[in-house]
Specification:
The complex is a heterodimer of chains A (290) and B (244).
Chain A (H helix, E strand, L loop, with lengths): L2 H29 L6 H19 L7 H19 L9 H24 L14 E4 L2 E4 H23 L1 H11 L1 H6 L4 H23 L10 H15 L4 H22 L4 H15 L12
Antiparallel strand pairs in A: 1-2
Helix pairs in contact in A: 1-5, 1-6, 1-8, 1-9, 1-10, 2-3, 2-4, 2-8, 2-9, 3-8, 5-6, 6-8, 9-10, 9-11, 10-11
Chain B lengths: L3 E8 L8 E8 L5 E4 L6 H9 L6 E6 L2 E2 L5 H7 L1 E4 L11 H8 L6 H14 L1 H5 L10 H14 L4 E5 L7 H16 L3 E5 L3 H6 L3 E6 L2 E7 H6 L1 H6 L2 H8 L1
Parallel strand pairs in B: 3-8, 3-9, 6-7, 7-8
Antiparallel strand pairs in B: 1-2, 1-4, 4-5, 9-10
Helix pairs in contact in B: 3-6, 4-6, 6-7
Classes of the chains: A mainly alpha (290), B alpha/beta (244).
């Protein structure tokens, strides 16, 4: 295997990781909530995609237009139902960790109840083909997933950079109190951010469904990986999440090809460990006190 | 009728004790005020309660005759009450220009925003020089000017400023007070909270002396400054340290 091939594969996978992580880090930035249920909701979208594919033969990439708005709505609803009452609590951070942990357990339980614990996968035609450019082979599924992820990341960037709502979200991320002072309704912004984060989780679920086999308990592995990515990039920094995801995905691709796939997960945890020791605020993060 | 009326307000944090214990005061349009008093008197708590960050446990806050109890901060701002908290509350990763633009978040008219921004740059020429710089990289005095300039963007009826001189060198603090005095000329009613009682009272028309969450005394600012009894009782430490 040549190293260009490894880098390309790493970057493709990194693009998908980046989108998964950006939703999580956005939520942390706006609300100071580490949503431990993020990956569980990614799985919800993956199972919805699976049902749509099995019953209606709907292409998983097309099912994005269903999973994204659906998860957006679910996110806004969950936020309004669960979070405002915690805001007054002096133990806000602890409460939200427990709350999202509980959410993850509930979602996993429901999914297991409905779909049982066996592995599922969505197999459209492009899941088993690949494209050859020179000496490099690119799995078609990863190429598609990566392109869609980058497109969505660009949409997110445009939204945050150039719309009034986006400006309000960025302002709330930088200084929640100051945002309130200039008249931002931070509760509305938080609900929106939760919705956007969940919509990105929805997109990620649809894309993952044809890249990896999945079962309801799988989300613990994903959330661990995502946490490593956003801690590396700096909690609450979307730029950091993207850079962290690309770096770690490439690194893990190298580890896989040099030492075997068994060692690939250790890349993430070892990096997480080192980052926390050397630069706990991450690559692009700022020191925050909770 | 006063512009802003605070009537028998009781307020405190979380499950903690009452910080304001039935405070009553009136703010008239066009007059400037300074609230002084020892630490823990409830000066900042009063501002936070009026700004909508803290809900009063009892009593009433009225603005323009309308009861505002339980209004959110954005609703108070829309009504015309702007709050400038103690710690320069900026968006550190945004430029000075973007910070000022955020001050006009509730304004949709772009031409009006540009006009206001020019006015702010006129009032604070240093901000025009720094307009492209990230707010987080400015000095303490400059950051304070950004928060004051940002408050001007919305042209509030009342601006409540908490400890504008906190952590600033005396010369810089003097400049800030000079700017605050200028707010009154723009037709904005200023309510100041200041630990440095002399500097604060010198900058305004009327003084409130708070102690233990209620009003101890109020009167013309120069009268308070001249009254040796009040100075000794309530402004004691702040004054003697300075005069020594």
């Amino acid at each position: 295997m040549n190293w260009v091939q490894i880098v390309v594969l790493g970057l493709l996978l990194g693009g998908v990781y980046a989108m998964m992580a950006s939703g999580l880090t956005l939520l942390f930035g706006v609300m100071r909530v580490v949503n431990l249920a993020h990956a569980a909701f990614i799985l919800v979208a993956a199972f919805i995609t699976y049902v749509l594919f099995e019953n209606l033969a709907l292409d998983p990439m097309v099912s994005l237009v269903i999973t994204m708005p659906l998860m957006f709505g679910l996110g806004v609803m969950l936020y309004l139902l669960l979070f405002p009452r915690l805001e007054e609590s002096p133990r806000y951070v602890e409460m939200t960790v427990l709350l999202t942990f509980g959410l993850a357990l509930i979602v996993e339980g429901l999914l297991t109840f409905i779909f049982t614990g066996i592995f599922r996968s969505v197999r459209p035609e492009y899941a088993s083909t690949s494209i050859r450019i020179g000496d490099i082979f690119i799995p078609t599924s990863q190429l598609y997933a990566s392109l869609i992820s980058f497109a969505l990341l660009i949409c997110l960037w445009l939204l945050l950079r150039f719309t009034k709502t986006g400006t309000a979200i960025r302002a709330t991320m930088q200084n929640r109190a100051a945002a309130q002072i200039v008249g931002v309704n931070v509760r509305r912004v938080s609900a929106l951010a939760f919705g956007i984060g969940m919509a990105l989780a929805g997109a990620a679920g649809s894309l993952l469904s044809f890249m990896f086999p999945f079962f309801p308990g799988r989300h613990w592995q994903w959330i661990a990986l995502l946490l490593a990515l956003i801690v590396l990039g700096g909690m609450g920094s979307i730029k950091g999440a993207v850079v962290g995801a690309l770096l770690l995905a490439v690194a893990s691709a190298f580890v896989t090809s040099l030492a075997g796939p068994t060692w690939s997960p250790i890349t993430f945890y070892l990096t997480l460990f080192l980052i926390l020791m050397i630069r706990p605020e991450g690559l692009f993060g700022t020191k925050v006190r909770l | 009728m006063a512009l802003l009326e605070v009537e028998s307000v009781v307020a405190g944090y979380g499950a903690g004790p009452d910080i304001l214990t039935g405070l009553t005061l009136n703010i008239d349009e066009g007059t400037s005020y300074c609230i002084v008093g020892p630490n823990g008197a409830g000066k900042s708590t009063l501002l936070r309660t009026v700004a909508g960050f803290l809900k009063p446990r009892a009593g009433e806050v009225r603005f323009d005759g309308v009861t505002m109890n339980g209004s959110r901060p954005d609703q108070m701002l829309a009504a015309g009450v702007c709050y400038v908290p103690q710690d320069a509350s900026l968006f550190p990763m945004m430029t000075v220009r973007e910070n000022l633009a955020m001050g006009g978040y509730l304004i949709d008219d772009r031409a009006l925003l540009r006009e206001r921004m020019d006015m702010v740059y006129e009032t604070f020429p240093i901000l025009a020089e720094r307009s492209g710089q990230n707010a987080g990289t400015l000095s303490g005095g400059e950051q304070q000017m950004v928060t004051l300039g940002r408050a001007l963007m919305i042209e509030p009826k009342v601006v409540m400023i908490d400890e504008p001189s906190l952590g600033l060198a005396p010369m810089i603090a003097d400049q800030i007070f000079e700017k605050i005095r200028g707010f009154s000329d723009l037709g904005i009613t200023v309510v100041l909270v200041e630990q440095n009682a002399v500097k604060g009272l010198e900058a305004v028309d009327w003084g409130f002396v708070l102690d233990l969450g209620s009003m101890e005394f109020e009167g013309p600012a120069d009268g308070i400054l001249a009254d040796p009894r009040i100075r000794e009782l309530y402004l004691g430490k702040a004054l003697t340290r300075r005069e020594r």
